[in-house]
Amino acid sequence: MTEADVAPARRSLSTAVEMLLGAVAAAVVAAVGLFAFARVQWPAFNSSNVTQAVTTVGQVVAIAGIAVSVLLVRLHRAPRFARLLSWASLSGFVTVTLGLPLAATKLYLHGVSVDQEFRTEYLTRLTDSAALRDMTYADLPPYYPAGWFWVGGRVANLLGVDGWEAFKPYAIGSLAVAAVVALVLWSNLIRHDLAIVVSLATTALVLAYGSPEPYGAVITLLIGPALVLAWGGLNRVDGRGGWGAVIGTGLFLGLAATFYTLYLGLAAFAITLLALLAATLRIRARKSWRAAIDPLVRLIVIAAVSGVLALTVWLPYLLKVVGGSPAASGTALHYLPEAGAHLPLPMIHFSLTGALCLLGTIWLVARASTSRRAQALGVGVVAIYLWSLLSMAVTVLGSTLLSFRLEPVLIVLLGAAGVFGFVEFAGWLVLATSDNPRVKGAVLVIGVLGALSFVQNIPKFLDSDIAVAYTDTDGNGERADQRPPGAAAHYAAVDELIQAQVPRDRDDTVVLTADTSFLSFYPYLGFQALTSHYSNPLADFAGRAGTIADWSELETPDQLVTALDAAPWRAPDAFVFRQGPDGYTLRLAEDVYPNDPNVRRYTVTFPKELFDDPRFTVSETGPFVVVTRN
């Protein structure tokens, strides 16, 4: 190995070590910050402006720390301290922006409602056991990527914290870590001071537009520098070097595969477009089709590396399918809200975000032929628009590609480009005015005021999600806004009844209930998921729904017991019903796509006489009726 080969390898190792150190620093800052916030009795965010005021102060302090780190880098002073200060300030910014508004609740953004319900259930399942198991169903491997949830579950288990309670600190901590890792990656691709500024901007955008879905937000933070890295590895004029970037890109795609399938698809699509563009440029330059071999080989290596990493979470599911288990088509893609029916155009919105995206759009077009950064980010933007068009086109086939969920990624890519455009425009303006210090000061003030104006309003962007975190009932049966809790306050009593009457561990007990948030707090297995959209294709959601309806139409306990024993899946060990005027009820859901909303609720009623038998035990607590098999 020559000295020329050793230097890139050392640089890659150095970058990996720096990422690890940055991640540790961010985790420590987030842990200390969240612990400190929890020591204070804060008022509910949705009923007082006190928490907003303190959040703003914390954000200003964090941005001041970032500004000092940029200044030190520009002056070439104390480089190690500047780096550590930038890590601490950026992770502190994330912790303050999300942690303080949520300081008076144990729940994360959007509480345990709708999508956050199944995410909390997943984390509870993987806190209970390290085995890769479906979030709901017995004897099935997971279909949704388990990476983010598995790591969080292991952390919660190590600390002895329930999964639902670990969700908030883990979500905030993982976002802080991802922000710093993205900063380290940016700083190894562009000059350090600019990397700090663009990392702050993209982190703020992700917090505002993507933080309710934390495992997706982690990938969103990394996708910008990952595209620049990929372009550096694929577009090699001389065909030499760049293999560290190739491996790094493969690792990023592998991480995306273990965290979020949709973002994996988008990132893989964008990187494939970059490879095709690199191949086209090589062919044009060398006048030979053979010139396309090198970038395509690099693309294959990226796919191989990412595939190996993806198998760490996907292998059990694939083996189950290959082994002959019947898998339904699934309905995860059956959702088309209004946002998915048109192209997202954030650059024409009259807002600070719109202005930054507009500046980014102009910069991408102006620098498309001269800047590798603009080329990489531009192809990422083009990929999102192509994906959106394809998503709308496949609606005629009865499905979508969920393109509306890509808008946060689009905003972040355009926002990163907007930062680069603002810096270049400011440079031209200063140059045109002969380095006039007043002009420099004015540009700096505009940038700082714009940043402060945006970041202090992030909690307002998230206002509805924060409100749900305070109004939902948590696993302790409490509401953070101190108002009367909901039915979930009786879950502890339900759990006690099942534990007393069913001689099995929770993770080996199947419960049929329509109040599926019960499974978010206690690691019981479910007989039926919240909706088909979150259901494992191997579980046969429609078949189970039909079976439940058939059970409700039976007339005698003997018929019910026979039907339960004959079910093709593990039958419920316990039922958790609601009281109804004609019996015990379950409020279930069915997919009605292409309608919007895409879910229809309906009620199934079981006659009380079906359980009037010594083989069943019927108990009541609060609004619930708990039936267990003896």
Features:
21 helices, 630 residues, alpha/beta, seven-stranded mixed β-sheet
Structure, explained:
This protein is α/β, with parallel strands linked by helices. It contains 21 helices and seven strands. Strands 1, 2, 3, 4, 5, 6 and 7 form a seven-stranded mixed β-sheet that branches. β1 (510-513), α19 (518-521) and β2 form a beta-alpha-beta unit. α9 runs antiparallel to α10, α9 (243-259) packs parallel to α11 and α10 packs antiparallel against α11 (293-322).
Question: Summarize this, please?
Answer:
This protein has 630 residues and is of the alpha/beta class. The chain has 21 helices and seven strands.
Strand runs, count = 7
Number of DSSP helices?
21
**Cα end-to-end separation:** 71 Å
Helical coverage, percent range: 55-70%
Mean pLDDT over the full residue set: 92
Shape: globular
SSE order, one letter for each helix or strand: HHHHHHHHHHHHHHHHHHEHEHHEEEEE
Low-confidence stretches: none
Judged by helices, strands and strand pairing, the structural class is alpha/beta
- As a percent range, the share of strand residues is 5-15%
Major sheet size, sense and barrel closure: 7 strands, mixed
Radius of gyration: 26 Å
Oligomer: single chain
